[in-house]
Design brief:
single chain; alpha/beta; about 25% helix; binds 2-acetamido-2-deoxy-beta-D-glucopyranose
Length: about 500
C-alpha cells in the first residue's frame, strides 16, 4: 500500500499540509516581530528544555499517527509543535542515548554492538562531553528522571558525575515496572543511594510525581533542563488496569496492555506540562520528544507501515517518532521533513539554549533549520557500522540523499506489521530477517519509504558510490567494546542485592 493510500485512511493527516501553507505567512510576521522586540528588550532568560525519551515507542504507537492509540497530551504537543518526519535514531537503546548525550556516532566509541548489559564493565567513554555538562556551564539546573543505560560500573560513569545535578531512576536496559528489579536485583537510585522504598509503584506514576516535585522545587532564577528518559514503553509489557481498560475493544491482550502503557506515559507527560504551567515555566519551555529506536514488534509495539523494528536498521528500527514544541520555534503546527539524526540533538539543543555547540562531533546544529522550517543541514548519516561477526558479516548502513545502502545483516526484525488488535493470538507475518544470501540492499527512500523495491542489482553505480562513502566513515570506526563474559566483580550479591557502581 502506498503512503498516499495510508494518508487517505487517516494514518497521516491531510490537515498537516494545509496548516503548513497557512503558517508560512504567520511565520514571516512572527520573525519580524521577534527581530524588533529582541533587540529592544533586555535579554530574556534561556529557555527551559524538556528532553523526553520514550523507550521503544514505535512509529505507529502515537495517537497523532494512529487513532486507535489514546495519547491526547502527546498529540496536542506534537500538533501544536513540529512533527519530525525524518528523525533518525540508532536501532537500539545505549547507542541512541550515547548519541543524544555526546553528539558522536556510537561506532566511533565502541558502542555500536547491541547495548551495554548489566554484567559488562563498559560505559560511555569518559573523555566525551555530555549535553548536561554544557548546559550547566550556561547556568542550567540539570535533572534526569528515568533510564540511564550508558554504563554504571564506575561511579564516574553515572548521571551525577556526567553533568546532572540529580538522578532518580535506573542504570540498565530494562526492569520490572513495579519492583524496579532486574533479574531479581534492585536497580533503582535516588541520586547515588539505592532506593528500596518505591517497590510496588508503577514507574510512569512514580516518575511523573518525581518530575513534578523537581519542577516545584526549581529555583526560577535559573533555566531548567529536564532529561526524562521514561521506562515506558519498553518490555516487560505491564500497565495498571486503569490504562489497559481504555482499550477494551482491542482483542489482542499484548497490544491492549501495550496501548495502556502508552496512555500511562501520555498521562505522565500531561502531568509534567501541567506542573510547568502551574509554576509559570511552561511558556518559556522547549520540548523535544523522541523514541530511542523503533518499536519491538514482539513486545506489541508497532511501526506500521515502515519495515522492520527495533534491533534492525530498516526504517522501522531507525526512523523515529519525534516532535518539538514550544519556546524558540518560529514556525509551528506542521510536519518537518528535513533529515535529522540522533547525534544532532546535542548541538541543536545547546544552540536553542543560546550556547555554542561542542566542536569535533558528528552532530550538526539544526536549530536554525527546525526552528524556522528551513532546509536541513544534513544530507547523509550512518545507520550503523558494526563488524561484530554474529551472525553474518556485520551490519552497516548509510544514507546519502534519497538513497540508503545496507550491507550485511540488517537485524532480526523484518517485515511489515499492522497493529495486532483483532487477533487473540500473536501471529506475525514474515518477521525474522531471512538473508537468502543477499548482503547488499539499496533503496530510494523518497520513492519507496517502505523499502519494498531493492535497487541494488539495478543500480550498481549507486551502490558503489554509497559503499565508498561508507568506507570513508569506517576508517573512524573503533572495535565494539563488547565483553562476552560477565565481570564477577559486578555481581549484585556483593552489594546487598543491588546493581551497584564501583567495580571497573
Ligand atoms: C577519547 O579517548 C580515546 C581513547 O584514548 C581517543 O581515541 C579519543 O580521541 C578521545 N576523544 C576525545 C573526544 O577526547
Ligand atoms: C497525574 O496526576 C493525577 C493527579 O494528581 C494522578 O492521579 C495521576 O496518577 C498522575 N498520572 C501519572 C501517570 O502519574
Ligand atoms: C484494528 O485494526 C483494524 C484493521 O487493521 C482497524 O480497522 C481497526 O480500526 C483497529 N482498531 C480496533 C480498535 O479494532
Ligand atoms: C512524511 O514522509 C513520507 C515519506 O517518507 C511522505 O510520504 C509524507 O508525505 C510525509 N508527511 C508529511 C506530512 O509531509
Ligand atoms: C539492603 O537490602 C535490604 C532489602 O533487601 C534493604 O532493606 C536495606 O535497606 C539494604 N541496606 C542498605 C545499607 O542499603
Amino acid at each position: 500500500m502506498s503512503w498516499d493510500a495510508l494518508s487517505a485512511r487517516g494514518y497521516i493527516s491531510i490537515g498537516d499540509l494545509f496548516t503548513t501553507m497557512a503558517c508560512r505567512g504567520i511565520a514571516v510576521l512572527a520573525v519580524l516581530l521577534w527581530a524588533t522586540t529582541s533587540t529592544s528588550s533586555s535579554s530574556p532568560q534561556r529557555p527551559n528544555i524538556v528532553f523526553i525519551v520514550a523507550d521503544d515507542l514505535g512509529w505507529n504507537d502515537v495517537g497523532f499517527r494512529n487513532p486507535d492509540i489514546l495519547s491526547p497530551n502527546i498529540d496536542k504537543l506534537a500538533r501544536e509543535g513540529v512533527i519530525l518526519n525524518s528523525s533518525y535514531v540508532q536501532p537500539v537503546c545505549s547507542p541512541s542515548r550515547n548519541a543524544f548525550m555526546t553528539g558522536v556516532y556510537p561506532f566511533k566509541v565502541g558502542l555500536q554492538h547491541i547495548v551495554i548489559w548489566q554484567w559488562q564493565n563498559v560505559c560511555s567513554p569518559l573523555n566525551h562531553t555530555f549535553l548536561p555538562q554544557v548546559l550547566k556551564g550556561l547556568g542550567y539546573a540539570t535533572h534526569i528522571v528515568g533510564k540511564w543505560h550508558l554504563g554504571f560500573c564506575n561511579w564516574d560513569c553515572t548521571p551525577t558525575f556526567r553533568g546532572f545535578d540529580s538522578f532518580f531512576g535506573y542504570y540498565n536496559s530494562r526492569e520490572d515496572y513495579y519492583s524496579h528489579k532486574l533479574s531479581g536485583y534492585l536497580d533503582f537510585r535516588d541520586d547515588q543511594k539505592a532506593a528500596w522504598q518505591y517497590e510496588g509503584q508503577y514507574s510512569a506514576n512514580l516518575y511523573s510525581q518525581k518530575i513534578v516535585s523537581v519542577i516545584e522545587k526549581h529555583d526560577k532564577s535559573r533555566p531548567l533542563f529536564l532529561y526524562l528518559p521514561f521506562q515506558s514503553v519498553h518490555s516487560p509489557t505491564q500497565a495498571p488496569e486503569r490504562y489497559v481498560n481504555l482499550y477494551k475493544n482491542v482483542n489482542n491482550e499484548g497490544r491492549r496492555v501495550f496501548s495502556g502503557m502508552v496512555s500511562a506515559l501520555d498521562e505522565a507527560i500531561g502531568n509534567v506540562t501541567a506542573a510547568l504551567k502551574q509554576t509559570g515555566l511552561y511558556d518559556n519551555t522547549l520540548f523535544l520528544l523522541t523514541t530511542d529506536n523503533g518499536a519491538e514488534i514482539f513486545s506489541h509495539g508497532n511501526n506500521w507501515p515502515l519495515r522492520g523494528g527495533k534491533h534492525s536498521i530498516w526504517e522501522g528500527g531507525t526512523r523515529g517518532t519525534a516532535f518539538l514544541h514550544g519556546a524558540g520555534l518560529k514556525k509551528t503546527g506542521y510536519t518537518y521533513n528535513g533529515m535529522i539524526h540522533a547525534v544532532d540533538w546535542m548541538p541543536t539543543l545547546i544552540s536553542a539554549a543560546g550556547g555554542t555547540p561542542v566542536k569535533g562531533i558528528d552532530g550538526i546544529d539544526q536549530w536554525q533549520a527546525v526552528s524556522t522550517g528551513g532546509p536541513s543541514k544534513r544530507s547523509e548519516f550512518i545507520y550503523n557500522l558494526d563488524d561484530y561477526v554474529i551472525p553474518l558479516q556485520g551490519q552497516a548502513g548509510i544514507r546519502m540523499g534519497d538513497y540508503k545502502l545496507l550491507l550485511g545483516y540488517p537485524g532480526t526484525q523484518d517485515g511489515w506489521h499492522r497493529p495486532m488488535n483483532n487477533t487473540k493470538d500473536d501471529i506475525y507475518e514474515k518477521h525474522l530477517y531471512d538473508p537468502q544470501g543477499k548482503e547488499t540492499h539499496l533503496f530510494n527512500l523518497k520513492d519507496d519509504p517502505l523499502e519494498k523495491h531493492d535497487l541494488a542489482e539495478a543500480m550498481p553505480e549507486m551502490v558503489a558510490k554509497l559503499r565508498e562513502r561508507l568506507l570513508e566513515y569506517k576508517r573512524h570506526m573503533v572495535p565494539a567494546n563488547y565483553p562476552d563474559h560477565p565481570d564477577p566483580k559486578g555481581d549484585p550479591k556483593r552489594y546487598n542485592n543491588t546493581w551497584t557502581p564501583g567495580w571497573c
